[in-house]
Task: inverse folding
């Protein structure tokens, strides 16, 4: 949708037919983003009524006014400007949280992600309890995740039924002085009476302060139907959307918010245990419109990249230096921030970025292959890439399981980046880099590749491809 709105902002004046044509494109873009048809119809009607008004037509910047109207209405439908996700702690501790959803939605992993966030960022002591006695090793999976994120999980007692486990969990949470107790329930492949009956019995026993539905953003309209069924049966207090990194537009969030009336609490942005963000209507509206989520990107960079590493690389850049050791450092910084799809989903103009990534076959495996090739080099080769000739290339290719063509591609990419570093030095160093990246560097975003790029040489909005002007 970003392209539609960009074209509008370039127009000096807008007629009513211009706005109507743009609304038709917005309608198509929303449907492609998996927003439910009734929700799209309602949205277009409200926006059109305001967008063709006299205030817009006579505005000095009518195109920008329409973009603002579209954005503001999206934010409103997603919960409003002041709405923020996260767990509501306004209850007697331990606050009981019931996690529900279909099998395969990522419920167990999401339980651990939320527990990790509550403990590390909200400073809450959390107990996780697995009530899934149906799926093999489901209880053990939650225990393993608990050890990974250093969150306590209720010890497993073989043969116990879900209701008995829930009672034990509540008792342990009270005696242990926990702030929050999270219950991970069993999922089914479909919404059936047996499943709902068991979950209702657990709800009546646990009396949760929060009942959160975990659902996969990628299943589109089906996720909306699932949310509606669970809300009617259990009375949800919120929704957690997983795999929003893949469904970068976030259309499912708009549909579920509109259909259930319940807030989106969290969104999953990748597979790692820290790849979870508190829901923000303004940010998701930006993603739906193709404006990205640069705030989250900056925050992710600030959390994962050491300041000293960023300053060290910045100093070398100011000197116009950039060898393969520096390139390896950049690759590892990007890896720390999460998977590439998730990162690209936060970047303004992500539609073009995602298409470029698909065309260039850019993914996390490609980044790992680049790292493997650099690690197969000697320290001398990394510091002085010019000495890497035919026999050395063959050795590096063999050592990393790649081909000589792959090594040549990596060296070409490095050469382009090194050339960019020299140009940046002549243009004024980091100040020039900040302007190339649309000011992102100035906001504390050291983890992206120089020149607004990503590993693999893909061009991102706000900067040229490596080595080209």
Result:
């Amino acid at each position: 949708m970003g392209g539609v709105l960009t074209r509008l902002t370039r127009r000096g004046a807008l007629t009513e037919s211009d706005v109507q044509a743009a609304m038709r494109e917005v309608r198509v873009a929303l449907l492609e983003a998996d927003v439910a048809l009734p929700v799209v119809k309602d949205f277009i009607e409200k926006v059109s009524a305001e967008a063709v008004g006299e205030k817009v037509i006579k505005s000095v910047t009518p195109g920008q006014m329409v973009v603002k109207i579209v954005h503001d209405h999206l934010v409103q439908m997603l919960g409003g400007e002041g709405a923020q996700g996260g767990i509501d702690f306004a209850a007697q501790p331990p606050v009981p949280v019931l996690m529900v959803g279909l099998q395969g939605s990522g419920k167990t992993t999401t339980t651990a992600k939320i527990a990790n966030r509550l403990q590390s960022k909200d400073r809450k002591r959390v107990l996780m309890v697995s009530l899934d006695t149906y799926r093999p090793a489901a209880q053990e999976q939650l225990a393993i995740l608990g050890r990974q994120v250093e969150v306590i999980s209720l010890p497993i007692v073989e043969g116990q039924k879900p209701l008995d486990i829930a009672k034990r969990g509540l008792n342990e949470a009270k005696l242990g002085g926990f702030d929050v107790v999270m219950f991970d329930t069993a999922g089914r492949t479909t919404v059936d009476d047996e499943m709902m009956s068991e979950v209702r019995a657990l709800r009546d026993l646990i009396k949760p302060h929060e009942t959160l539905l975990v659902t996969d953003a990628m299943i589109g309209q089906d996720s909306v139907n699932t949310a509606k069924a669970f809300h009617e049966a259990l009375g949800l207090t919120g929704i957690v959307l997983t795999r929003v990194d893949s469904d970068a537009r976030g259309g499912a969030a708009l549909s579920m918010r509109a259909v259930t009336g319940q807030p989106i609490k969290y969104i999953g942005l990748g597979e790692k245990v820290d790849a979870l963000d508190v829901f923000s209507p303004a940010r998701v509206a930006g993603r739906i419109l193709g404006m990205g989520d640069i705030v989250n990107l900056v925050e992710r960079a600030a959390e994962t990249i050491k300041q000293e590493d960023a300053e060290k690389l910045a100093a070398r850049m100011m000197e116009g230096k950039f060898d393969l050791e520096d390139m390896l450092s950049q690759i590892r910084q990007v890896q720390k921030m999460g998977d590439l799809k998730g990162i690209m989903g936060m970047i303004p103009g992500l539609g073009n970025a995602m298409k470029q990534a698909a065309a260039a076959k850019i993914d996390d495996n490609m980044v790992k292959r680049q790292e493997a090739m650099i690690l197969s080099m000697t320290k001398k080769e990394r510091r002085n890439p010019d000495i890497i000739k035919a026999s050395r290339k063959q050795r590096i290719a063999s050592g990393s399981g790649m081909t000589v063509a792959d090594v040549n591609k990596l060296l070409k990419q490095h050469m382009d980046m090194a050339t960019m570093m020299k140009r940046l030095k002549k243009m004024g160093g980091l100040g020039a880099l900040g302007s190339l990246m649309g000011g992102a560097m100035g906001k504390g975003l050291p983890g992206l590749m120089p020149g607004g790029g990503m590993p693999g040489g893909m061009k991102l909005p706000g900067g040229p491809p490596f080595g080209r002007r």
The two ends are 27 Å apart (CA to CA).
